[in-house]
Design a protein that fits this description.
By secondary structure, the protein is of the alpha+beta class. The protein is 29% helix and 24% strand. The protein contains three helices and ten strands. Strands 1, 2, 3, 4, 7, 8, 9 and 10 form an eight-stranded mixed sheet that branches. It is globular and about 35 Å long. It starts with a helix and ends with a strand.
């Protein structure tokens, strides 16, 4: 009976851990490392996309590592998705983390809003409608 009790205890612990893992990210969000990501199905302009993320206590994703870039490209499928950008005084886009350019992300375009496409990161006019990706910390 000791072995049976121990086996039941282990099974219950595994179920509890699995059940707990489901609650790290909200429904329709995907967990990766210590963050949750939402890939929209609808399309909006950049500002509306940003607002949608903020309304869910999140922000548009800013790619900060090569691993994160690969994860995002895998789950975004073939659609282009709006991501975060920071503005400089002369209205050209610039990453908050300037090291990103040394982490294997190709950037094209000279507009001020950024999106993730099949080739990497590009810029476009902010009123263009695209899907978007939100990111927030796991709770």
């Amino acid at each position: 009976t000791i072995v049976l009790t121990l086996t039941i205890y282990i099974v219950i612990q595994v179920i509890k851990e699995d059940r707990g893992a489901q609650y790290f990210c909200p429904d329709n969000w995907i967990g990766f490392q210590d963050k949750c990501y939402y890939f929209s199905k609808e399309e909006e302009d950049w500002n509306s996309s940003r607002y949608n993320c903020l309304s869910q206590n999140a922000s548009l994703v800013m790619i900060s590592t090569t691993k994160e870039k690969h994860f995002l490209k895998r789950f975004k499928c073939t659609s282009d998705h709006w991501i975060w950008r920071d503005m400089t005084e002369n209205l050209t886009g610039q990453w908050v983390d300037e090291n990103i350019l040394n982490k294997g992300i190709n950037m094209t375009g000279n507009e001020i809003c950024f999106y993730l496409n099949e080739d990497g990161v590009a810029t476009a006019r902010c009123y263009t409608e695209r899907k978007w990706i939100c990111r927030k910390k796991v709770h």
